[in-house]
UniProtKB/TrEMBL annotation:
Pfam families: N_methyl
Regions that span the bilayer: none
Source organism, top-level taxon: Bacteria
Name of this chain's protein: Type II secretion system protein
Taxonomy of the source species: Bacteria, Pseudomonadati, Pseudomonadota, Betaproteobacteria, Nitrosomonadales
Gene3D superfamilies noted in UniProt: Glycoprotein, Type 4 Pilin
Keywords: Methylation
Length: 123
């Protein structure tokens, strides 16, 4: 007598696997989005801290984010975790036009909304 699985048994197993995947995949996508948001918050804090340290040392703001790397305030300009590119950061100019430099603050270049409903560009 040959031992094996029938077509019905295989279909039942595949249906159970498909059901489990439909339950697990939304949770995975939610956790992936949360990880990106956490990374974005961390990157913004790190870059803003580097801008502040640069200003305290040089008494001016950096001209570009790359200047922070050149002067070793950052190891590299991190990619925006939402857009997944390092060239989409939005730079805010100093509020006082008498201030030297161009990088007062930095924001995400994404037009998307966070899970809490706020735009990433306002973080």
């Amino acid at each position: 007598m040959k031992r094996g699985f029938t077509l019905i048994e295989m279909l039942v197993v595949l249906a159970i696997l498909a059901l489990l995947l439909t339950i697990v995949s939304p949770r995975f996508m939610h956790m992936l989005q949360r990880a990106k948001e956490t990374t974005l918050r961390h990157d913004l804090v790190t870059m803003r801290d580097a801008i502040d340290k640069f200003y305290n040392d040089k008494n001016r703001y950096p001209e570009t984010l790359d200047e922070l790397v050149e002067r070793q305030y950052l190891k590299s300009v991190p990619p925006d975790p939402i857009t997944e590119r390092a060239d989409t950061w939005v730079i805010t100019l100093p509020p006082n036009i008498d201030e030297q430099g161009s990088v007062f603050d930095v924001h995400s270049g994404s037009a998307l909304l966070a899970e809490d409903g706020t735009p990433y560009a306002l973080w």
